[in-house]
Amino acid sequence: MRPRILVTTPIPEPGPSLLSGAADVTVLEEAPTYAELAERCASGEYDVVLTQLRDRIDAELLAKATVRGVSNFAVGYNNIDIAAATERGIMVGNTPGVLTDATADIAMLLILGTGRRVIEADRMVREGRFHGWEPELMLGADVSGRTLGLAGFGRIARATARRALGFGMEVLFAPRPPHDRAVTDSELGEFAGKVRKVEWDELVAASDYLSLHVPLNEDTHHLVDADVLGRMKESAILINTARGPVVDEAALVAALRDGRIAGAGLDVFEDEPLLAPGLADLPNTVLLPHIGSATVSVRAEMSRLSALNAIAMGAGRIPDHPVNP
Ligand code: DGY
C-alpha cells in the first residue's frame, strides 16, 4: 500500500514529484493552525507529516498522533518535541548539510552589512540624502582585523569561520554552551592554528562581532540576555542566523537603544514574524526575514531531502537523515 503523506505547506520541486511518485499526498494550501494540524495528525489518515518550522509538533499533539514519522523541512527541529516523539516511536527527519554555505553567507553578509551600515547607506541614496562624497559620511566598523566570536562550532559556524578568515578577521569560538562536548584540537582540522577556542565569557568580552550558531533548546534559550549584552564591548555587533529565542530580544532592543552594544544583524526573531517593540526603529540593525537557506538550489535540496525522508518513513524505514535514535 502506498504511504499517505500530509504536506503542511506547498514546497518547491523536486519534493512534490518525488512524493507523488511514491505516496498518496495531501498538500495543504494554507498553513494549518495548531488545532487543525493536531486533528489531522490524529485522524489516522496519514502515515507521515512533512512539516515546516512554524508547525508546532509538541508532546500534546504527539500523544494523540497516529503518524509514524515527521519530516521537517529544515535542519533545525526546535518546533518538534524530539523526546516525546522518540518515546512514542515516531521517527523525525531533517535536512542537514545542504544549507550550511547559504546560511554562512548570510552570517557574513550581516557582519559586513551591519558593520558597514549598508542599509542606512542604501536608504540615504534612495531618499536623495546623498549630496556627494564626504570625509565622515557613513563611517562604519572595520571587518578586516576585527575579532569574530562564534558561539558554537558546528557546520555553519565553521563555514562562517572560513569566510571570516578570508576577510582577514581573527576568529575565536566557544563550543556550544553549556553541555556541548569539548572540541579537541585534533578535531579542528583545517582550522588548526587559524581559530582559537576560548571560554564563553572570554568570547563575549573579546568579540567585535559575536555570531550565534547554536541550536535552540532549554540550555540556549536567552543565552544572550541583558547580562551577556552588558559584558560585550560597546563597539560590538551581535549576529544571529540561528534561532530568535537564543537572544532576549527585548534586552537586545534596550542594549542597542542605550548604546551598550553598537549594532545587530538578525535573520531570526524571537517570535517570528513579529519583532520586539522598537527593534524596527533602530538604525543600527540589519533585519532579514529568516532567509539563511533561501536560495533556489538550497530550497530544492531541502525539498528533496525532506521528501525522501518522508517516503522512507512512510515505508517504515529509517530516514536518510534521522533526528531521533
Ligand atoms: C533551518 O533549516 O533550520 C533554517 O532555519 C531554515 O532553513
From TrEMBL:
Any Pfam family:
2-Hacid_dh
Quick check: keyword NAD in the entry? yes
- Please verify whether the record's keywords include Protein biosynthesis: no
The residue ranges of the D-isomer specific 2-hydroxyacid dehydrogenase catalytic domain are 5-324
Identify the keywords attached in UniProt to this record, alphabetized.
Answer: NAD, Oxidoreductase
Q: Which PROSITE patterns match?
A: D_2_HYDROXYACID_DH_3
Using the record's annotation, list all stretches that form the D-isomer specific 2-hydroxyacid dehydrogenase NAD-binding domain. 109-292
InterPro entries according to UniProt: D-isomer_2-hydroxyacid_DH, D-isomer_2_OHA_DH_cat_dom, D-isomer_DH_CS, D-isomer_DH_NAD-bd, NAD(P)-bd_dom_sf
Task: Look up the domain of life of the source.
Answer: Bacteria
Family statement: Belongs to the D-isomer specific 2-hydroxyacid dehydrogenase family.
Protein name stated in the entry: D-glycerate dehydrogenase
Q: What is the organism field in this record? A: Sinomonas terrae
